[in-house]
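User: When convenient, might I ask for sequence and structure tokens for a protein?

AI:
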Amino acid sequence: MRQLQFGDVTIDRVVEQERFWADASWLYPGIDLEVVARHKANLGPLLVHPQTLQLCISFHSYLIRSGGRNILVDTCNGNHKHRPRALWQHQLASDTYLRSLAAFGLTPDDIDVVLCTHLHTDHVGWNTRMDNGRWVPTFPNARYLFSRQEFEHFLELHSSQPDLPVSQGSFADSVLPVVESGLAELVDFDHFVDGDLSHGTWIEDTSGHTPGHISVHVKGGGNEAIMTGDVFHHPIVFNEPSLKNTGDWRPDLAMRTRQRLMARCVDAPVTLLSMHFPSPTAGRLHSHHEGFRFQFFGT
């Protein structure tokens, strides 16, 4: 993804894994492969595998630079995390993510704010790193912002079922150590990170995939970007808006949230930035006689 500019605010993509091929039914239970085949030509071979009809997603963060501050949105899977139910992220030991951050001239010490759209394992992993047998914050100078409603929901699960690894254990190894370090801040919906509605960065309620899921908005220079977390996992959902994701907490609410956000963004000067669209990643939503079509920038 090329750098995006919104007034004096820039957005870049920090990549952990560029291409991950997943069975369509893993992302969208019950999906008929005939549906995938019908949209294969429109979506293209970088999004739908020509032979297997698998769907391609990626894992990345967004780096917002605004007013001299470096803001990181979501932190992917992370290294050395125990995830036996998700072997593709189990005990990762890769330098790709930190090298991607370093390509922008930054180290973990340079991050001022970490924003987590929600607390699923593939969005909080780099919140912490292993240091002498214990989990410590990867970004020691940052404020970590968690949605209050989201955190309280996961904390209740963790407290009521201490033997259950909440969110595959990521709440214990990637969230609670940040809280215990004193770096976490619980925020309410519509919290402003900086600026105001005309030029700034703020969060907005997009609950459904999880109880306190948020999207991150950046506005400046007359344009707007929305980092949508897991509201959208793959562009096929614009062709088939009724699809439900396997991880949705309340599928009907998640679908209404997706449809509301699509209606708001269609044919508008709003850049959509999913956490899982592979390169070129950024684009805009356009109306189509069948509903919606997502157009990547540069294509």
About this structure: The chain has one domain: 4-16+58-296. DSSP finds eight helices and 16 strands in the chain. The helical segments are 24-27, 33-43, 96-102, 121-124, 148-160, 170-180, 236-239, 251-265. Residues 4-16+58-296 form a domain with the Metallo-beta-lactamase; Chain A fold (CATH 3.60.15.10).
